[in-house]
Write a structure and sequence with these properties.
With 369 residues, the protein is an alpha/beta fold. The chain has two domains: 35 residues, no CATH class; 314 residues, Zn peptidases (Aminopeptidase, 3-Layer(aba) Sandwich). The protein has eleven helices and eight strands. Strands 1-2-4-3-5-8-6-7 form an eight-stranded mixed sheet, sandwiched between helices. β6, α8 and β7 form a beta-alpha-beta unit. The protein starts with 18 loop residues before the first helix and ends in a 6-residue tail after the last helix. Its cofactor is Zn(2+). InterPro entries: CARBOXYPEPT_ZN_1, CARBOXYPEPT_ZN_2, Peptidase_M14. One of its GO terms (biological process) is proteolysis.
Amino acid sequence: MSEYNTNGPVEVAVAPPISRDAQEKLRQNDFNVTVVAQDVEQLFSASPSIFRQTKKITDAFLELREVENFLDELVVKHPDQARVKQIGKTENGTPIHMMIIKSQISPAASLAGANNVSPVVFLDSGTHAREWLSVSTSLYAIQQLLEQPSSPARQVEWRIVPVVNPDGYAYSWNTNRLWRKNRKSGIGRCQGVDLNRNYDVNFEGIGSSRRPCSDIFRGPAAFSEPETRAVRDAFLEVRSEVKGYISLHSYSQVIMLPWSYQPDVHPNLKNMTDLGEGMAKAISKARGTKFDVFNTYKSFYPASGTSMDWVASLGVPHSLAIELQDKGHHGFLYPENKIRDAVTEVWKGIEFFAEEIARQSRQENFTQQ
């Protein structure tokens, strides 16, 4: 537990015969104990079946090849609005793809003085292999952006990487459902790097590990991994236009703000907090689901080498990460029959984010570092 440097909840799985004893020992050591799930095996048994009758993204999680087919089909339907770009390959040669969606500047925006360069929002998901809901959420956002061209979210250009970690994602489908890292080889008996500890911001710092067997192993050097280099290079291509960044993760129902690696206050924290709270309110309007808005270091857990902090360190006005549903009852094993509710309500928050980025961009109301 100390490796994560967290003061928040920590989940521990124990075998049924020792469950009562484990709870008692924890209570004796002044831990507050709550049983989140009585039967973890039952949660695994609810995992997707290979005999699924539907491929709808609101009703089923998609395997890697299905994700790629989904993106290709949308481009065929909307060739003038979107394209898929390969931004890199994994160590195993698996392509990493990004969807680019053009903005639809409204006449009102043009009259308000918007220039010819649209602000860009960069969004990624699937950094951690087991966080399938993050992939579904970004795919749903892509679908809504293309099928609802009048959405206020179309006032910006989108760069979306639905599966940052395709090898790890495939591995979580085929071998180990709870796999987190990429599939980097050559590290003794342990494989993989935590990609969200591999960015060049306070690398080797708090909330990361030098141990290759750790789930938060940071890797041998900043940007040592082809996946993080792919995101870096795709981001830097449009760096001057990027005004907002969202990284989707799961779970906890939290909108996290920089910094993750230090207690210092980000110069744009007030503005980012206001935007985050607006997102949380928009999400809540859908079904009443509550998302908290946290300064990550102080209120969630410290972490170094994260994409959110790296983007913020480059001066992007709004950089945040969303820990999606739920609060632990299902956790990473989120059930397919709840996907629709989850993605539709978070979409409302993403839509609000983009609309606010567009508004602040028109008014040049960003607080820069």
